[in-house]
Amino acid sequence: MTSTQIFWAHISRLAENGILFDAVVNIALLQEMKSAFGKREGEYSRLVSKSSNKLLNSLWEKKRIPEDGWPEPTLELFLSWLACHDTNNRVDMVSIGAGEREGRVVAPIVRRLHCNMTHGVGRSGSLLEVQPKALGSSMLACLANEFALNAMQLLGLTTCKACLVVPMCTGMSLSLCMTSFRKTRPRAKYVIWTRIDQKSSLKSIFHAGFEPIIVEPVRERDALVTNVEHINRLIEQRGSEILCVLSTTSCFAPRAPDNVEAIAAICRLHDVPHLINNAYGLQSEEIVRKIVAANETGRIDAFVQSLDKNFQIPVGGAIVGTFKQSAILPIAQAYPGRASGIPSRDLVLTLLHQGRRKFVESFDRQRMLFVKMRRKLVSFAEDIGECVYDVEENEISLAMTLSTIPLEKQTLFGSILFSRGISGARVLTSSHDVKNVEGCELINFGSHCSEQHGGYLNVACAVGMTEYEVDEFFVRLASVYAKFTRDMGQWMSEKSIFQPDGYGEEDD
Amino acid sequence: MTSTQIFWAHISRLAENGILFDAVVNIALLQEMKSAFGKREGEYSRLVSKSSNKLLNSLWEKKRIPEDGWPEPTLELFLSWLACHDTNNRVDMVSIGAGEREGRVVAPIVRRLHCNMTHGVGRSGSLLEVQPKALGSSMLACLANEFALNAMQLLGLTTCKACLVVPMCTGMSLSLCMTSFRKTRPRAKYVIWTRIDQKSSLKSIFHAGFEPIIVEPVRERDALVTNVEHINRLIEQRGSEILCVLSTTSCFAPRAPDNVEAIAAICRLHDVPHLINNAYGLQSEEIVRKIVAANETGRIDAFVQSLDKNFQIPVGGAIVGTFKQSAILPIAQAYPGRASGIPSRDLVLTLLHQGRRKFVESFDRQRMLFVKMRRKLVSFAEDIGECVYDVEENEISLAMTLSTIPLEKQTLFGSILFSRGISGARVLTSSHDVKNVEGCELINFGSHCSEQHGGYLNVACAVGMTEYEVDEFFVRLASVYAKFTRDMGQWMSEKSIFQPDGYGEEDD
Amino acid sequence: MTSTQIFWAHISRLAENGILFDAVVNIALLQEMKSAFGKREGEYSRLVSKSSNKLLNSLWEKKRIPEDGWPEPTLELFLSWLACHDTNNRVDMVSIGAGEREGRVVAPIVRRLHCNMTHGVGRSGSLLEVQPKALGSSMLACLANEFALNAMQLLGLTTCKACLVVPMCTGMSLSLCMTSFRKTRPRAKYVIWTRIDQKSSLKSIFHAGFEPIIVEPVRERDALVTNVEHINRLIEQRGSEILCVLSTTSCFAPRAPDNVEAIAAICRLHDVPHLINNAYGLQSEEIVRKIVAANETGRIDAFVQSLDKNFQIPVGGAIVGTFKQSAILPIAQAYPGRASGIPSRDLVLTLLHQGRRKFVESFDRQRMLFVKMRRKLVSFAEDIGECVYDVEENEISLAMTLSTIPLEKQTLFGSILFSRGISGARVLTSSHDVKNVEGCELINFGSHCSEQHGGYLNVACAVGMTEYEVDEFFVRLASVYAKFTRDMGQWMSEKSIFQPDGYGEEDD
Amino acid sequence: MTSTQIFWAHISRLAENGILFDAVVNIALLQEMKSAFGKREGEYSRLVSKSSNKLLNSLWEKKRIPEDGWPEPTLELFLSWLACHDTNNRVDMVSIGAGEREGRVVAPIVRRLHCNMTHGVGRSGSLLEVQPKALGSSMLACLANEFALNAMQLLGLTTCKACLVVPMCTGMSLSLCMTSFRKTRPRAKYVIWTRIDQKSSLKSIFHAGFEPIIVEPVRERDALVTNVEHINRLIEQRGSEILCVLSTTSCFAPRAPDNVEAIAAICRLHDVPHLINNAYGLQSEEIVRKIVAANETGRIDAFVQSLDKNFQIPVGGAIVGTFKQSAILPIAQAYPGRASGIPSRDLVLTLLHQGRRKFVESFDRQRMLFVKMRRKLVSFAEDIGECVYDVEENEISLAMTLSTIPLEKQTLFGSILFSRGISGARVLTSSHDVKNVEGCELINFGSHCSEQHGGYLNVACAVGMTEYEVDEFFVRLASVYAKFTRDMGQWMSEKSIFQPDGYGEEDD
């Protein structure tokens, strides 16, 4: 046998076994061993690298995020492998589509950007259903839910029992949860809403067909905290007319995360559902700890978090988590149709890319950098005669007063920060104006409370922010501030006040 | 100057002018001309190809699907160009993200599959809002809506005035429309629903917080048609308690498209909103014609169609169309947050790939192939002693009786078609069983009507189906049928009846 | 077991078996069957689609171009699968590179464009050697050689016994062959070269360290044909000083393909190697037939063809073919080092994409279109008072006289064709000038012969040209010609003559 | 004007200006400013980010590696932009190909992997020529040569004046240089070759049509160094029969880099060309310093380096450098045809990805890690009773004796290292056997010298090796060594000696 023949024989064997990942078996070595050891060749065969096609198997068996991230070639192989399980990618028998939806994609570039998986996830019955036409897409969807659950547990939500990746924004996902609560609360008309000045949060209530009852926060030293008493009173008054309490954990300082423990206790007492808007709260150990504690002593029906804000994937999805496995089913069934599989795919790819280790590290780094950012902001504020609100429980967002800038110039200051390449920093000014959001009238919208203040700057330290960004932020902030206050004299005669539409609002 | 220097000079000039597509200027030719004609060089300069960077400009100016499709290199350039307008892809100044959502994407493979556009579309206020952070993504979203409108008009909906691409399934989009109607109908509790046995249609009503009032179709010869009288009666009885009538155009034979003209007339008379589920109805000239006519003489508030079923892109989106430009805004504002930009991107890429010509052709081909499919099915049915229901108005789906197969074997017959690589063909059997969908009890679910029948086979000819598929479908159908009836004798003793879960249902 | 559990179990089984392509097994169907037939379930199991992972196996077993092309998802899976066999893509054990070349690629975009296969092909000993570090890349290289051989045989070179894909241009590959002949001809100094006015052909001789003895063609009616007598005389005179005869088959009319049968006979008689430059000759049935015949009765040591010109892949490679299996080895060993694997990859992907059927069709279409082009050119020539040279044996290139255009304007005419988007059409003018190519003095370079003529236009019909291109070519040609002759009056006073550098030459 | 209209107007303006990278102009901000400052708006306009489309311009103007690397979206845009300049990617006028090579690519996946640039580089005249059909590909080729020169200078070869990226391996590129020397040395038959046991180096001489005269190195303490005296003597004897001296800088210890200064001095004195095989020598500051010095006081006609070994790109290319600008032309002209553009593309992409900063850093890191590797190997050698050869001038490769392992087991030891995932580490054993390479008889092939030794292990620290790899290498080496020596007792009775084909050779 020539060396080429040996090689072909080896390849045939590989292919015969359908081995996916069994990469390098040192042919030369095998030959040597044969000649060297004769019959005792098995002696060293244990040195030969173990087949690595166990990688994929272990994924399906354990359904857990692997310890170490996968390299890109493996991710690509994985996607190709999945795609081959969708009917329309069959190579053995041409699939004939005689229905009204057959996963046809006419533009090759679109097909490619979807990795040839075009059927989306779920069926009209439920987001959790498997599509017989699209096993690959369905596997991806299942794996996304399992990975999401695993991720929750890794981040401290150890008692979480089920997760559902939903291809919609946080607000729409909250809406989906409320819809699924409806059946058990046939008389319900209202959702008790602890005020948080995000339009999407408020709109999610209307979208589900309910009306909010607004509970304004109360001031506790620097922080705006939950008015627990008010919630209790409302439930006692309205009883079964209340669909649920919608609390919010992640928010801009000086608003503090809601007191979910107290709310959960009230909800348990009065047998009222409790839904948590935990948009980017996974990043805060304090918030996570509180949700776990609240569930132990009180009631949480579901909690919703954004995929892009916590997992560094593109906008478009959310995760709904529940503490009972059965609780996820009615939520999955409430979605009326098949849905995009992209957020599921992105989550799986991202977690396979990071592996457990780097995933956890990215959260640890956020915590470390937040402490640094707070320290630097406090120091900068002192230097310029401002101060940073003390809202200890808020571990993501910070607020610094802007008393040294005239009220009517504060927004411009924020805009200039943006033009200097700083995105996400927002200036909040105070006003007695009433903003109408979906029919609700909110005074001083943006500040989470009608109470007036002297204006402040919000900044956040989210997962994925780098140390360079934190440092550079302060370099630019200092330079813009210095220039701005120097030039201010010239403008003081002018009186223009401008409020660009939508500026300073928190999007979802 | 050496030839390389001339070349560099030429390139510098190209780059200086920022010319994108001005591809080949024949350098050699220019040189020749100079020497050949001296001052009269202009004489032949008109031969030199006109700069083609007008291509992109004309896109933004006209906002119309180009006549001819773009080749892939151009599509890729276009995507790259767009991506460069998102803040986080800036190359001149490193963007510092100090907010809670900064379009960060940690896995390179995910970033790539999103063409580096990670911010999604819309803001918390509305799906139509532009994100200052993400001009590229926003351009794509705007263009998608313009293209969708252009496509509608090309397909005959010439009076359509506005379109919104929604990154959700048809059912969820119907839900979004209902939510936006709520404000003008504060007392509304019910949606009048002409029965169509898709779970997602029914669920969309519950999701928006309403209850359906079911109007069963009536038999008119072979077809199941709208019970217009019943709808009229219900509106007269309930008045302002009715949110809207939800009619359906595209459906499985023998159900016919709803009589939207009569419904629109009633809705106009009683001032009740009218919402049309036009899931895959764009493919039928008859349906399109009726919607246009219905709007002229009656009332249509919005109509919703699936992106994947009509435009051959992956599952995940829908288009909401309105006949008044202003009517689209409240619907866009009802979505509570930012949303995935993928369906918008896919639609734009697909229409740029096809160009107006091929886009229109693909619909023409469907019409031609449907006629062929009907002719062949009628002929096959005659051969085996069955018949095809005569539902003239249904130009997408066909139904053939299955009287020669025992009731208890019909579903198996359908399954075997699937196993032979035919997807989308469904066998419908009749039953007195009651199916509970979201609390509604529906007799004989799947048949759109409680009336019993002897079982039938549904097939559809949708956009994208090829002539080969139509031909091959009949080859396999004939072969499976022949084998099935031959072997049937052996089973007749057995009594097993099986109804696989969800089999034969219409997904959305 | 819930349906999800069944699904997971199914997936585990798939993964366990390492099944690559075993796409859709209808789970629901399997379940049904179980309940329907009980123990007789096997009855219908034969209906369930056969596993398709045989696809890959058959590739390795047969090493032949598959009958039908593979769809893109399968090609991508195939590439991923191959890449996993290169050491540095291992996922089970991190590879530690302690050598000077470890396939490291620092730019992710570059790695991706190479499908993660970075080691190239061959080793310092031979292009045919397998790299233990890079089994995937090596498999690709082996397959490319096998596919090339298979393609040759499909095109009529049925007695071809071995092929080598070389990642260099045709000229360099000819050089490689000459180098490998050197050992058996230690006294050789010269290569007998039948004149063909391509610089690369001539340069290939010098590159290998030899000197050409030029044999000018002789005129036979319209055609320029091989001066067989001259070759015979030279060999008789110089004997062992001749390394080989280098003949050329594919060329621009009016040069005819060399009379390889006569040359082969002489070479056999005198025991002199014979090398054929068959750059794009695979497209001509006549040339193929002659090479086969020449080998039967005479001597051919190797023949070289361009990859891009015959196989529609990017520039960069060639195929060396031999009629003895053992003859390929010394050529493969002559390459001094490892080489780019890109041409091998591109060839394999292209042939897998086309499949045998479409590959053969593309050559059939060229033949049909060439006949059409010749007919239309003859007709056009008649209309304008020109004529097409009658060179029957040349089935790829055509030449039309340009007597109606003044000599000094002919080149401009060619340039204008180029500026009108016609590439590849060349105007040849005649001249007594001497062109020095690598020290050889050639009179009337470009015309393959020192004999003067009145100028002509060359066009070719190569594989991949579409019917639209042929038709549109004549539309543009006619329009340019009409305009050109109309405007000519104005220029006649002027005397400028220009000859852009390199215009009208045949590249390789 | 509505906000959407303003947006469209802005986009139209962007497109009008053909602005590529002018990413984010804060529209909202511009509006604000207008209202706030009225006519003094210019005051703050300087805050608005400067247009960044200067990026591309500066590339063409400076033709230098940018200071900082470009992000991937920019690289993709750049490739798309280039591709649009190739004729066959025109979108304004369909290109009609009427020649024999038209850049046609039939498989979409192949076209994509070539970024739509399919014409390769160069013309039959020279690798430096611009293809009028393919301006994009030609730009890439030009830029590659400029970047290569810039890179050389950054690495210390400050007096280098011209570079040519050649799409062939180092050996073939050496061959190309020799061919180009031929014209000025018509009587030359021999190349003086300082022995280096790489087959490709030796084969490059034969390929160009010359014969080597071998100069064996001499032992100087541990190192094998150049026998300068011998070279001098040979030149004095043979004079014009010598084409050039081919020296080698990068090599496996204990061979030291050739004394290029002394050789250059001799070459200058006797007016003989001097060609340097600098395969992976760019990584050694010492080698670079010596080449520069040698050129100042002596003669160097060209020096060749591998692209993959120095620049971390896939196998397939080399860079030829010269110290006179005009000297590069004859080399570029010696290539007989058009060539693959892939190595040029890969080099440009890689250097744009890294930027000057990271490119230089990667070389600094190699130097630091080499020192660490040497220190650790010396320490390990001491522990086990071996020693590391002292070859100070070799800053890439190290050699450790293997006296504690019986001769006949040494190769097995090397194989086991490979099977443990260590690639590149080679065991060299000594032998009196004669190896015939292309007719040359070399005793003790692999050891660069016929002198016998007791066996040693070679390891190298090349650019791209990570600190983790260095550390992990020693972990595995120690563990394999311990296990190997422990088990050795059992085998001692056996007598099998095996020498896998090609094992331990240095590839190129």
UniProtKB/TrEMBL annotation, chains A, B, C, D:
It comes from Caenorhabditis auriculariae. Its EC number is 2.9.1.2. This is O-phosphoseryl-tRNA(Sec) selenium transferase. GO terms for biological process: conversion of seryl-tRNAsec to selenocys-tRNAsec; selenocysteine incorporation. Pfam families: SepSecS. One of its GO terms (cellular component) is cytoplasm. Converts O-phosphoseryl-tRNA(Sec) to selenocysteinyl-tRNA(Sec) required for selenoprotein biosynthesis. Keywords: Cytoplasm, Protein biosynthesis, Pyridoxal phosphate, RNA-binding, Selenium, Transferase, tRNA-binding. PANTHER family: O-PHOSPHOSERYL-TRNA(SEC) SELENIUM TRANSFERASE, SOLUBLE LIVER ANTIGEN/LIVER PANCREAS ANTIGEN. NCBIfam families: selenium_SpcS. Substrate binds at R123, S124, Q131, R338. GO terms for molecular function: O-phosphoseryl-tRNA(Sec) selenium transferase activity; tRNA binding. InterPro entries: PyrdxlP-dep_Trfase, PyrdxlP-dep_Trfase_major, Sec-tRNA_Se_transferase, SepSecS/SepCysS. The modification N6-(pyridoxal phosphate)lysine is found at K309. Belongs to the SepSecS family. Homotetramer formed by a catalytic dimer and a non-catalytic dimer serving as a binding platform that orients tRNASec for catalysis. Each tetramer binds the CCA ends of two tRNAs which point to the active sites of the catalytic dimer. TRNA binds at R420, R486. It catalyses: O-phospho-L-seryl-tRNA(Sec) + selenophosphate + H2O = L-selenocysteinyl-tRNA(Sec) + 2 phosphate.
